[in-house]
Task: inverse folding
């Protein structure tokens, strides 16, 4: 099937626009961080009251309700307005980002995750969408910059170093398992970016709580450690089974494509290691003495491994996965 | 003796603690990493040797420590086995507890419900009986016990989320099952590769010697391979304009079971990603390449043809290398014959391009095949008893002068060259060969079953939450009924607050939670 060149070009444009929009959103979030006053206990109390008032039907899944951080409009500060603009721009970025993947899929007539560029793009899309969903459930809008920064870096690398022109994929990748395996794995990896970031910030915040002198300026602006911990846990609990399913789909595909379901290919090995690390995180969080900082370190390490798997294993170590490489 | 027992018991306790399992899990992950970073002998022997040679004593040390064989190494296996034991040790007591718990009734309501992490209290006009009835209605689906208390109050103890522990146990047992099935598969499985000419060439899975390479599990001696045969009738490939492969297809026939006796061939289109499953084994299309046909007309007028596969040197353009060897006809004396053997060796390009005299290939398809070869005459060493590669000649014979280069030519398909003694060598053209892999793994279905159970157990144990709720109703001084609700989250406390508020409200009102 021939590639539709003009659609492929539009896809590239929307991709670049998405990156630009994310960058602007990041700047806005950062301004909110910089100019926003640290909210005193009174503001927080008010927030709790507000949350209690809507709390009658509030369950954990009330994704539709307004973000709890909303204070009455009259008191909305300049900084908050910046943050809200950032959030709105993030949504715009997501739409452009989504459009770029859809256009590429239509242009090539296949699922748009057949090489590293497309794969990294999909991963980032999942990360941002996860963030947008979480922002409505946890009072953490001000962390947008910390999520968008790694996303922007990944997308920039994907769009330059890893970029490949739109083309059909080779025989080994022509399978509906490409659709399943790669989409599930990238969904899981993308979602896991968020708890990775949250865990790192948790470490900062709890270090500050223990000793107010450390991170004195930055620490107080972060959400409370308990909120960050809960966010990281909930998100990991959601992504971990997905990641497991993605690995199993990979194994099923490998049985058909490579003649064995598991062969300790470098990418398989690192996937296994990351799986163990996240399993250890879940165990650690349920084991006395490992809760808190140790668990957070484990989670952050898990995400480092995921990125390592994406870049190092594809680009440096030769393995069966490398044909999904940059062309 | 006592000490020994005590020591053993302590070791067992230590080994089966959660902390130990966690540490072992980490060790397993850590131990697996070098396998991703260092070349592994089982995946790439040539690269491994190169790495060892390049790194001197360090390479040799790593080699001695089995770092190029991580997944078969003593230390990796040790962690694997210890983890296994630790898991069993964790699981046995938990299983007993689990069965005890499944039969147990929800615990007595604590005397002071206000001390519970979650608590609500209200005074209502309904009677004690009615209030308890409302509680029952609100707690439908929970495991429930109603009790009459000493001071005339009545209480409900409710608990739910038992499935969580079920899921947890399923997950861990499935993990064990997967480890065992995986290990058994490695012991009883085998895997072999073979090259078959794609113009009717046949292969039978009747013994290890039919393979070009074979990897057997520990318990496989090659005498009991699953009997089946395949015949490769043709091979088709299509490519994009830039040379990237688009599809590969080998048309094969296969026979197993009764078909072997009747000689029936059943057709199958063998593709990448679509193995043939027959007789409990799987047959894969791994790759393909070209076989040049050479015809030699000897001075006496006898002709001989030979078609031996050459191997791709460049996977993108399929520029290939190899050696086609001939025994001369008409010599009865072995020593005489050994002086007149011929070898044609060099490069084969499926789509030839020449830069000067240098042959290259600019496309993987056989559009315009050509060879650039050296022709050697002399002793090929085929009688020496030493193993020979079919893809090359023994260079040491050239150095010894026992094998002499007599020509160097480029030939397009159909062209020929005449040697100094009048022998004519013609390059007739190319045909396809395919490389096939046969794999046998009797337990892989079990691995899949356990993997699915792992996911089911995992999801169950992460989604289901364990909660306890108590309701107590008693007649107050003023004749109204005091209802108290207390709650305790046994897992994931964080989310329980709102959940409890809603629940307590419906307990007090008698309506089910929305
Ligand atoms: C046991 C088998 C397998 C495992 C454990 C596995 C694991 C993974 C993981 C973890 C990723 C995401 C990488 C990252 O985070 O950077 C991935 C991506 C991918 N996998 Fe697999 N995989 C397996 C089998 C396969 C098979 C058989 C194919 C194709 C024939 C395949 C094709 C891909 C492709 C195209 C990607 C996305 C691009 C890339 O990162 O290179 N995988 N796999």
Result:
């Amino acid at each position: 099937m021939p590639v539709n060149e003009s659609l492929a070009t539009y896809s590239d444009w929307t991709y670049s626009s998405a990156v630009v929009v994310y960058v602007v959103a990041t700047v806005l979030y950062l301004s909110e961080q910089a100019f926003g006053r640290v909210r005193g206990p009174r503001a927080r109390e008010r927030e709790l009251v507000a949350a209690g008032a809507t709390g009658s039907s509030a369950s954990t899944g009330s994704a539709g309700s307004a973000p709890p951080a909303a204070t009455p409009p009259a008191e909305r500060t300049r900084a908050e307005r910046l943050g809200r603009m950032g959030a709105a721009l993030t949504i715009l970025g997501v739409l452009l980002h989504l459009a770029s993947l859809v256009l590429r899929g239509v242009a090539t007539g296949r699922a748009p995750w057949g090489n590293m560029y497309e794969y990294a793009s999909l991963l980032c899309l999942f990360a941002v969408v996860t963030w947008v969903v979480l922002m409505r459930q946890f009072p953490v809008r001000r962390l947008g910059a910390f999520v968008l920064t790694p996303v922007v870096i990944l997308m920039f690398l994907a769009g330059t170093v890893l970029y490949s022109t739109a083309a059909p994929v080779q025989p080994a990748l022509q399978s509906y398992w490409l659709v399943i395996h790669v989409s599930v794995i990238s969904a899981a990896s993308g979602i896991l970016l968020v708890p990775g970031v949250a865990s790192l910030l948790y470490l900062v915040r709890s270090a500050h709580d223990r000793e107010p002198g450390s991170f004195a300026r930055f620490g107080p602006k972060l959400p409370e450690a308990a909120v960050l911990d809960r966010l990281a846990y909930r998100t990991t609990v959601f992504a971990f089974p997905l990641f497991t399913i993605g690995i199993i789909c990979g194994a099923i595909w490998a049985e058909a494509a490579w003649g064995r379901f598991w062969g300790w290919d470098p990418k398989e090995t690192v996937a296994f290691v990351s799986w163990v690390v996240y399993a250890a995180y879940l165990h650690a969080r349920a084991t006395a003495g490992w809760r808190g900082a140790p668990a957070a370190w484990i989670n952050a390490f898990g995400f480092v491994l995921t990125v390592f798997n994406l870049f190092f294993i594809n680009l440096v170590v030769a393995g069966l996965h490398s044909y999904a490489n940059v062309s | 003796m006592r000490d020994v027992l005590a020591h053993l018991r302590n070791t067992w306790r230590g080994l089966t603690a959660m902390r130990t399992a966690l540490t072992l899990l980490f060790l397993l992950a850590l131990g697996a990493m070098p396998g991703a970073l260092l070349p592994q002998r089982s995946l790439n022997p040539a690269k491994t040797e190169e790495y060892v040679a390049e790194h001197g004593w360090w390479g040799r040390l790593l080699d001695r420590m089995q770092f190029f064989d991580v997944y078969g190494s003593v230390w990796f296996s040790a962690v694997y086995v210890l983890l296994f034991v630790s898991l069993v040790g964790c699981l046995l007591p938990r299983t007993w507890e689990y069965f005890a718990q499944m039969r147990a009734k929800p615990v007595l309501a604590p005397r002071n419900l206000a001390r519970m992490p979650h608590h609500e209290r209200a005074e209502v006009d309904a009677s004690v009986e009615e209030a308890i009835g409302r509680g029952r209605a609100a707690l439908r689906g929970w495991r429930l016990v109603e009790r009459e208390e000493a001071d005339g109050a009545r209480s409900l103890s409710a608990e739910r989320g038992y499935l969580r522990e079920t899921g947890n146990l399923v997950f861990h047992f499935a993990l064990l099952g997967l480890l065992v099935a995986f290990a058994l598969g490695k012991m009883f499985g085998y895997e072999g590769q073979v090259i078959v000419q794609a113009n009717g060439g046949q292969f039978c899975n009747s013994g290890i010697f039919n393979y070009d390479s074979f990897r057997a599990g520990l318990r496989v001696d090659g005498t009991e391979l699953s009997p089946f045969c395949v015949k490769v009738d043709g091979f088709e490939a299509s490519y994009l304009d830039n040379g990237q492969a688009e599809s590969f297809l080998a048309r094969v026939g296969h026979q197993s079971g009764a078909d072997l006796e009747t000689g029936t061939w059943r057709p199958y289109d063998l593709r990448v990603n679509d193995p043939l499953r027959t007789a409990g084994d799987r047959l894969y299309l791994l790759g393909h390449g070209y076989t040049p046909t050479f015809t030699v007309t000897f001075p006496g007028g006898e002709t001989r043809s030979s078609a031996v596969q050459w191997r791709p040197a460049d996977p993108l353009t399929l520029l290939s290398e190899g050696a086609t060897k001939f025994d001369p006809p008409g010599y009865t004396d072995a020593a005489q014959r050994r002086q007149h053997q011929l070898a044609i060796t060099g490069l084969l390009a499926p789509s030839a391009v020449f830069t000067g005299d240098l042959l290259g290939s600019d496309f993987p398809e056989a559009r315009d095949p050509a060879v650039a070869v050296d022709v050697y005459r002399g002793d090929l060493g085929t009688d020496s008893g030493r193993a020979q590669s079919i893809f090359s000649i023994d260079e040491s014979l050239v150095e010894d002068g026992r094998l002499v280069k007599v020509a160097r030519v480029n030939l397009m398909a159909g062209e020929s060259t005449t040697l100094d003694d009048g022998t004519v060598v013609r390059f007739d053209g190319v045909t396809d060969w395919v490389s096939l892999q046969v794999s046998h793994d009797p337990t892989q279905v079990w691995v899949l079953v356990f993997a699915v159970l792992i996911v089911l157990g995992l999801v169950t144990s992460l989604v289901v939450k364990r909660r306890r709720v108590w309701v107590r109703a008693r007649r107050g001084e003023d004749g109204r009924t005091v209802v108290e609700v207390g709650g305790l989250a046994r897992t994931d406390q964080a989310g329980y607050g709102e959940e409890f508020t809603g629940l307590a409200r419906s307990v007090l009102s008698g309506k089910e939670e929305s």
